[in-house]
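Researcher: Re-running this chain for the archive, since the previous output was lost when a drive failed. Same request as before.
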Amino acid sequence: MEEIEIIKPDDWHVHFRDNNILKAVVPETTRHFARAIVMPNLTPPILNGKQAIKYKKRIIKNIPKSHNFEPLMTIYLTENTNKFELSESYQEGLVFAAKLYPAGATTNSESGVKDIKKIMPILETMSKVGMPLLIHGEVTHKEVDIFDREKVFVDQNLDFICKELPELKITLEHITTKEATEYVWESNENLAASITPHHLALNRNALFVGGIRPHNYCLPILKSEIHRKSLVKAAISGNPKFFLGTDTAPHLIHDKESDCGCAGVFNATYCLPILAQIFDNERSKNKLENFVSKNGAKHYNLKFNKQKIKLTKLSNKLTFKKYLDIRKEKVKIFEPDFPVFWDIF
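Model: Regenerated structure tokens:
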């Protein structure tokens, strides 16, 4: 029986939401991951260290006792963020990073940043104290095609930040394009990128095959096959600039299947088997540990986890559970459009 043993992975991009959804989804991530960076785009958003700690306590309360897991908290950047309070929260260990959402780019991002130049003093302070910046890398101008939003952000905003603040540790999150991959590959050592399992698994055809498929709708939106292949190439390369950030994002079914469906894919349950299959298909199983367990820790200057996990190749394809129950409602669990023969034991 074929097996892969790897250092227990980390997820460098998680949405736990809150209340009943939080209670249901936290065990799904903490079952297989040792650490995760938790996104702050709640309603209302997490704007300071005190709010982050309160949220962290709600998360910890719902981690099963058998799961050894550390949530790494973040603050939602706005143009009014107090740079001194932000720095203090980071230096006191209340938060791990700050998240930049361009206003209107994704779920609960209405309070985000409209003008990058207005937050440059904040970013300068972050650079001085070593606080990581996490970026949702899309512009939201109406005149820009939705499939081009990431490329335009890289050209207009990311390049400006990197050149002005080369010492700032940046993660361009959930990249989706060949252009973003190439920019990260060639840029300074302090810029890295996270990649999701659904962007590795699907191209934009998955939004439309057999009709509109709202459960594959996410932001940044799925791109064409040339871009998906570029992401796979980066993931299996072993290059330490690329690592896993699942962007697992639960939404109730009626919110996904509405006339204005929410953006987000909930992939926490089967993330690692899906990735094992993708790396196996690419004959790169030996690079899986780098992508899910090592590269992110290196970027954030953290030690590798001591625990290990083992994935086993099955004789028959893995049977996916379709839904996660949340009281009387459900969240659709992501399943790729190819068979998966790996599981965790």
